[in-house]
Specification:
Length: about 325
């Protein structure tokens, strides 16, 4: 497993990380023992970066990652805050920040959080410099070592990195969401801002294992957020209509190298972009966590494969997503 610098945090993290939303809630049931086994499988495979949030299972995900922190060495944890109340600009206040921060520090069992990300705040928040000044104050208070943002839109990412100490941006980027690579990646690299890539498998679509008949559990957002009923529809299948995605995936199958999986191809495609610091696939089992970590060992994709993935995106996917995020 190779490491890459995590923006201006001074940390090096594994290029394949781990997304811990699945072990919190919203993806169907994952028992506690299975969750811990999944976290350890990732760590055993060389993963050193774990992404969570205070709202995943209302703190369950943070508490499980906190257990991992006590059981393993050399792990960097990024959490998020900002969704425990309505996402109005007023709620991103110094008092709320400190209350949320206290709770995350307790859940994770640490004095200082390695990295805290604003959890997809409203666009207007990026035009409130006082919020970023307050995050600076929290660094000085020793509550957080660094801060970043998790964004929905490319334009939010570009605005966020105008604040000089935003260390990282978390953004959706995958074979079905290619626009971040057009302008944002170069700007982030120029400013030494780390890029954390989420939803790398388009909520599992890019694993190629679903069919038109696949049914998701009632407590799985791939059932209840298909039209954006609960949160931004771009977080579910990267905003690609399910059946459009299924057809596009069929065209990618031929590119999978011998002995590899479609999910691994999808993750390796992301790692072809040097501006990316780490990719955080979510996993619900040790097998998934291990398979994802092993994507780092795949050889680089050749020009033909890269061109084919660009063409499938341009022809089938871009009309559905490119102008939305
Ligand atoms: N607003 C935000 O900041 C935000 C939003 C979304 C996600 N995130 C973060 O990003 C992480 C990743 O994104 P995501 O969870 O939305 O989507 P994702 O990583 O694109 O997809 C995860 C799903 O892919 C399937 N999968 C994973 N590994 C697999 C493998 N090796 N083989 C086959 N299938 C595999 C699993 O589906 P099955 O469950 O069907 O097995 C899994 O639940 C989250 O855990 C979270 O940490 C942050």
């Amino acid at each position: 497993m190779q490491s890459r610098p995590l923006g201006s945090t001074g940390r090096e993290v594994s290029e394949i990380g781990f997304g811990a939303w699945q072990i919190g809630a919203d993806w169907g049931d994952v028992e506690e023992d299975a969750a811990m086994a999944t976290l350890h499988a990732a760590a055993d495979a060389g993963v050193t970066f774990f992404d969570t949030a205070d709202v995943y299972g209302d703190g369950r995900s943070e508490r499980l990652v906190g257990r991992l922190l006590r059981e393993r060495e050399g792990i960097t944890v990024a959490t998020k805050m900002g969704r425990r109340l309505d996402q109005t600009v007023e709620n991103y206040s110094p008092e709320h920040f400190r209350a949320w921060n206290d709770r995350s520090r307790e859940n994770l069992g640490v004095e200082t959080l390695d990295l805290v990300q604003l959890h997809c705040p409203p666009t207007d928040l990026y035009y409130r410099p006082e919020v970023f000044e307050d995050l600076e104050a929290m660094v000085e208070e020793g509550r957080i070592a660094a801060y970043g943002v998790s964004v929905e839109r490319v334009e939010e990412a570009l605005k966020a990195i105008e604040y000089p100490n935003v260390a990282t941006v978390q953004i959706i980027f995958n074979a079905f969401r290619q626009r971040p690579a057009e302008l944002f990646f170069a700007e982030a690299a120029r400013r030494e801002v780390g890029i954390i890539v989420r939803v790398p498998l388009a909520s599992g679509l890019l694993s190629g294992k679903y069919t038109r008949e696949t049914a998701f559990a009632a407590d799985d957002h791939r059932n209840y957020n298909r039209q954006g009923e609960a949160f931004d529809v771009g977080e579910t299948f990267a905003g690609v209509p399910f059946e459009v995605g299924l057809d596009a995936v069929e065209e990618l199958r031929a590119l999978v190298p011998e002995g590899a999986t479609l999910a691994q191809l999808a993750l390796r495609w992301i790692l072809m972009h040097d501006a990316v610091s780490t990719v955080i696939p979510g996993a619900r089992s040790p097998e998934q966590a291990l398979g994802n970590a092993e994507a780092a060992a795949l050889p680089a994709l050749d020009d033909d494969a890269m061109a084919r993935i660009a063409a499938v995106y341009a022809e089938r996917i871009a009309p559905h997503v490119r102008q939305r995020w």
